[in-house]
Design a protein that fits this description.
By secondary structure, the protein is α/β, with parallel strands linked by helices. It contains 7 helices and 7 strands, in the order βαβαβαααβαββαβ. The two termini are 27 Å apart.
């Protein structure tokens, strides 16, 4: 089983790195394209996210996350999942409440705190210091733990039955990185550098099919699909013509969970 997590794609604020927590912003055209691109590759029968294998989908209440869900599954499949009562809006997945730092850049937050005489020893770190007039790391961890308990209630009874019971989470950049740490039982201030691209999919799972052994899946095999010869040749040509382009991409998973970030 897996827990697939998805981050929400790009908004006007996230294009330039502004902290976007409670503010309601729609996806940009680029953000919508990011989700649609992911959907074409990972959603569908036999794919990483197979609607027939889903036990539950949890979505952040923010508009950009709800839009991400609709784009990811498409109108027909999204409606079918809702009719089957497999989609729940989860306040636990709302992005970190940045409080006084909402809409600011990191540089602006650091300057504000210097002006207040804070951080004399070490610079501000959200994982240890939290946010002024917003959430602390402890508060974020508490609500994440509540959702993890719900996920295990969904997946636990199916762990050794052979019945697929994947869970998909649609949420945000900081929240999902915090989620991975709590899934592994780590405090949020633990040094664990994680990257999750906007519109990207991560996977968390369990060792030994044991609900008490949560794990981070750092690599997984994708379903094999035979392609016509002319498509294989075309793909090879495309790859070789772009071999000067380098990219860093991180995939995570949670039997199983897919964590899907919005574009943030």
């Amino acid at each position: 089983m897996a827990d697939k997590d998805l981050t929400t794609p790009r908004t006007e604020w996230t294009k330039n790195g502004r902290y976007t927590g409670t503010t309601e912003l729609d996806l940009t055209d680029v953000g919508r394209q990011q989700v649609l691109g992911t959907s074409r590759v990972v959603v569908g029968m036999g794919n990483l996210i197979d609607p027939a294998k889903l036990g539950q989908v949890f979505v952040s209440p923010r508009n950009r996350a709800q839009q991400t869900f609709d784009l990811l599954f498409g109108e027909v499949q999204a409606k079918a999942l809702r009719v089957d009562n497999k989609v729940k809006t989860a306040v636990e997945l709302a992005e970190w409440n940045y409080g006084a730092y909402e809409g600011l850049l990191t540089s602006e937050i650091l300057a504000r705190r210097r002006g207040q005489g804070l951080d004399q020893g070490t610079p501000w770190n959200i994982w240890t210091d939290g946010c002024e007039n917003g959430e602390s790391a402890v508060e974020v961890a508490v609500r994440i733990d509540a959702l993890i308990s719900k996920i295990r209630d969904v997946q636990g009874p199916n762990m050794n039955t052979g019945k697929p019971c994947d869970v998909v989470l649609v949420s945000h950049g900081h929240l999902l990185r915090a989620f991975v740490k709590r899934w592994l039982g780590c405090p949020l201030n633990v040094k664990l550098s994680l990257m999750l691209e906007p519109g990207g999919v991560g996977v968390l799972s369990y060792e030994h099919h044991n609900i008490q052994e949560p794990a981070l899946m750092v690599g997984m095999a994708l379903p094999f699909r035979a392609e016509p010869e002319h498509l294989r040749c075309s793909l090879s040509a495309t790859i070789s013509s772009q071999d000067d382009i380098q990219s860093d991409r991180t995939s995570l998973d949670v039997r199983n969970a897919r964590i899907f970030p919005t574009n943030e």
